[in-house]
Write a structure and sequence with these properties.
Oligomer: single chain
Low-confidence stretches: none
Number of helices: 5
Helix content: 40-55%
CATH topology of one domain: 434 Repressor (Amino-terminal Domain)
Number of strands: 0
Strand content: under 5%
Radius of gyration: 15 Å
CATH architecture of one domain: Orthogonal Bundle
Structural class: mainly alpha
Shape: globular
């Protein structure tokens, strides 16, 4: 019996452009799941460089890793700081068609 080789999939490795990052965050926001949104922000921050994002936000790198994980629960002010440091923007639109 042949064993299959598997590896852990890391979204950060696939977020190469600003457009990729914005689309990824947009998809997470559409799910309305705070943990998924935090994890997506964490993936984007890793893709850009967590140390750089920590410096731009004035927050600790380790605390960002923790807050921006699927188990994290970042304060909204942290989310806004990270979004700004990533060079992204949050937008609101009506859910009615």
């Amino acid at each position: 019996m042949r064993k299959e080789k598997t590896s852990v999939w890391d979204a950060a490795e696939h977020l190469k452009t600003e457009a990729d990052m914005a689309a990824y965050l947009e998809a997470a926001l559409e799910e309305n799941d705070p943990r998924l949104i935090a994890a997506a922000l964490g993936d984007i921050a890793k893709a850009k460089g967590m140390t750089s994002i920590a410096k731009k936000t004035g927050l600790g790198r380790e605390s960002l890793y923790k807050a921006l994980s699927a188990e994290g629960n970042p304060e909204f002010s942290t989310v806004l700081k990270v979004v700004a440091a990533l060079g992204l923007q949050l937008h609101a639109r009506s859910g009615k068609t």
